[in-house]
User: Fold this.
Amino acid sequence: MAISNIRYGEGVTQEVGMDLQNLGARKVCVMTDNNLGQLPPIKAVLDSLTKNGIHFQMYDNVRVEPTDYSFMDAITFAKKGEFDAYVAVGGGSVMDTCKAANLYASNPGSHFLDYVNAPIGKGKTVTVPVKPMIAVPTTTGTGSETTGVAIFDYKELKVKTGIASRAIKPLLGMIDPLHTLHMPERVVANSGFDVLCHALESYTALPYKMRSPCPSNPINRPAYQGSNPISDVWAIHALRIVAKYLKRAITDPEDREARASMHLASAFAGIGFGNAGVHLFHGMSYPISGLVKTYKAKDYNVDHSLVPHGLSVVVTSPAVFTFTAPMFPERHLEAAEILGADIRTARIKDAGFILADTLRKFLFDLDVDNGLTALGYSKADIPALVKGTLPQERVTKLAPRPQTEEELSTLFEASMQLY
Ligand SMILES: NC(=O)c1ccc[n+]([C@@H]2O[C@H](COP(=O)([O-])OP(=O)(O)OC[C@H]3O[C@@H](n4cnc5c(N)ncnc54)[C@H](O)[C@@H]3O)[C@@H](O)[C@H]2O)c1
Ligand SMILES: [Fe+2]
Assistant:
């Protein structure tokens, strides 16, 4: 298991300046997006830096749902700044951008695709040391503060891909639930669906003993190793928190207990999936985000079309589970029970349908758009969606059941409408 150090509690952000001082940092890069730049979480960080006499430069140009271009812009900033530490204040978009900026600024001679996941990039192993990074998550979703994963939209292919290496995980994740009180309703919902899917996918991923090939040297061990007894603990616990608190966190911005619980669940699920991996919903979500046409996400203060990550992932979950359940039906049924299904008289062979139905009810109750059609896709887009899923082998191969192109088409078709 590889995870970042974690510190949790209301107000912990005020310690960040001291942490940087303890690290001996002399020139710090603070990253955020320009919407968050106006909000209290960034003020809390900057106050602490100023109070502790930390010299810093601010980069607030992170793109929400980053692209290779926006990553490269941040990398250029980082290279010029020659920073000796990084602080990311934001959701997954900011934390991932900061990881990439740190990696490439620490290896100035490398090409962008060197470290990007194969087969899109070269998937090179990171062997050079990166600078310490502190992540201050402000959404309750990605768990990126705990993982060595940085995701971006690769414009040339119109699909998301990423960089995955334990070497780029933050040194410290500072989980300060006060920051969650500022999140708009749909950001809570969509980032919460990401937690739900991280937990569900890592729990149902191909078991680590069945994944192959076994790496010849531990340095080549992938970040995503398949479901395993340690990740399972984190995944199941995160799923229970989602079942109990997600709806409350969405509907009542004053519900501190619910928002704080989801903030922890995000890190817990991150610890689980950061080592076990995710599988088909994530693999299929990358073209759903990448091929976006005109869909505008409610509550996202941005000027471009986007399908928020959590939404792009959860929308295929009922169809995918109907498909994967025959492989490990007990786990699928257990997940359905945690999400509220009565399984006392359930037959094991119906596990997939039961989990899919439970998820549909869960999503309907939380106002999720009615499938891919509502996100602007039609049947005519299915071949492109399938084509964009094929290079996502890093995750699709972790699905409990292998998929043909035809089966992927069927899964996209079945996700056109949810209800
Ligand atoms: N690295 C990983 O392990 C990992 C895992 C899952 C997803 N991701 C990636 O993370 C990105 C999504 O991240 P996200 O869901 O955290 O959202 P985000 O970072 O994209 O932010 C979404 C919106 O919410 C706003 N926002 C964030 N925190 C706020 C707060 N406290 N108050 C008010 N507004 C706030 C942002 O300004 C932005 O407009 C995607 O690119 C996705 O692919 C990465
Ligand atoms: Fe995710």
